[in-house]
Amino acid sequence: MTQTLLSPNIITKESLVILENTLVAAKKVNRAYENQNKPNTTFKRGDTINVRKPNRFTVTTASAALAVQDIAETSVAVVVDHQSHVDFTFPTKDLTLVIEEFSDRYLKPAMAALANSIDYGVLQLYKDVHNQVGAARTTPASFAALAAATRRLNEEAAPVDKLRTGIIDPAAEVTLADAFKLFYNPQSAIGDQYEEAMIGRVAGADWFMDQNVALHTTGSVTNTTPAIDTNVVAGNTYLHMDGLNGATVTALKGDTFTIAGIYAVNPQNRQSTGVLKQFVVTANTTASGSEFGTIVNTGLPYSPAMYDSGALQNVTALPVDGDLVTFFDPGSAVSTQNLVFHRDAFTLVTVPLEMPNGVHFAARESYKGINMRIIRQYLISDDTIPCRIDILWGAKTIYPELACRLAG
Questions:
Q1: Has residue 255 been placed in a domain?
Q2: Are residues 175 and 244 in the same domain?
Q3: Domain-located, residue 179
Q4: d(CA 58, CA 312)
């Protein structure tokens, strides 16, 4: 049989196929924004891609008179700030292997490492998500636990379609597979639950296990007497809060909380959902004199900003001085952050890296929107031929309201 020397393009294409099949969370988020890039454009680490978001409007029913609304287009900046790469060396003689053998020895292990790196980065976006259900340090073990998360998506008017995904940790996968094994399911689904511990589609979402599900450690705030200290103004993103339990109390990015009497509204009909609105801390913050903030535009940074009227309305009322604040699982506690989301909650962008000159073995390929570069070059300094496989990517939360954290 005639041997064919493996080329950089063959190796890169095979690597991309393996990587795409290995991704879990990263394969379920929105990838369409990559198409906004100009063709044949290369990027460097730190470059920014601006993503346009759809406009939102209110409906007029009081009269037939024209009620023109201002249009204020918004965008989100996605920074391609992750350059993940796997570096190794292989003998030149191995270029004569068939691609299947080369793949098993080099590419599959390398792509598994890259896939885990990207999945881990995508799942770290949980810190942007303000909705959270479940019981901390209690592994989800019932249909009700999963349905509570998808219910929150429904209350936020997330599209009801096949693009909802749940990502759970290994402990939840085993517990839920055992809990659902006696449900009415096709024989093949029951087999998957027994043999692979797979959950399948439950409560309106497709559930997958990912070892990269994040753990979150909350700040040192305790739910004793935290309260709003200054009336909140629509659109503000800082809370002046007092009644903390110490001068150096901390709230950490990703901590979630509610405010007494402040309920969420459906973003389409602006009616109360009957559930307290949840908010998320957007930056690590340390109290001063048992307070978060003492002057305008200081305090506890949070998201989403509150609006009690108009197209952006998301709460039934704005908080006032004295409203009590309750944090989810406070006191420097650690819990698992399983995640349920609609595809459009997050985006992953991979972009073409620049190709260097003066190398003898290099290729850049794209497969299903994933861009990858491979380079191999002889080093005269130590008589070796190292190889590197790179992906330049960025992940961003676009619509946090289309996601919900499920504590475990």
A1: yes
A2: no
A3: yes
A4: 9
In sequence order, the 6+-apart residues with CB closer than 8 A to the CB of 327 are 218, 219, 221, 222, 223, 226, 251, 255, 256, 257
Last residue in a domain, options 286, 307, 332: 332
- The DSSP 8-state label assigned to residue 158 in this structure reads -
Rounded Cα distance between 156 and 313, Å, is 12
* Domain total in the chain: 2
Tell me which residue of 255, 251, 302, 34 sits closest to 126, measured CA to CA.
255
* 59 lies in some domain: no
Task: Report how far apart, in Å, the C-alpha atoms of 388 and of each of 87, 119, 355, 364, 385 are.
Answer: 4, 20, 13, 12, 10
- Check whether residue 160 and residue 271 sit in a common domain: no
Cα–Cα dist 307/327, whole Å: 21
Q: Domain for residue 160, yes or no? A: yes
Q: How far apart are CA 14 and CA 12, in angstroms?
A: 5
Beta strands in 80-204 (DSSP E): 82-89, 132-134, 164-168, 200-202
283 and 296 assigned to the same domain: yes
- From the centroid of its chain, how far is CA 279? 16
Q: What is the pTM assigned to this prediction?
A: 0.86
Inform me whether the pLDDT recorded for 238 exceeds 90: yes
pLDDT band at 297 (very low <50, low <70, confident <90, very high): low
Token pair 């920074």 is found at 79
* Structural domain range at position 241: 219-332
Task: Quote the strand ranges of 132-226, DSSP E.
Answer: 132-134, 164-168, 200-202, 205-209, 214-217
Q: What's the CA gap between 347 and 76, in Å, rounded?
A: 11
Q: H helices of 23-131, where? A: 99-102, 108-123
Per-residue confidence (pLDDT) for residue 37, from 0 to 100: 53
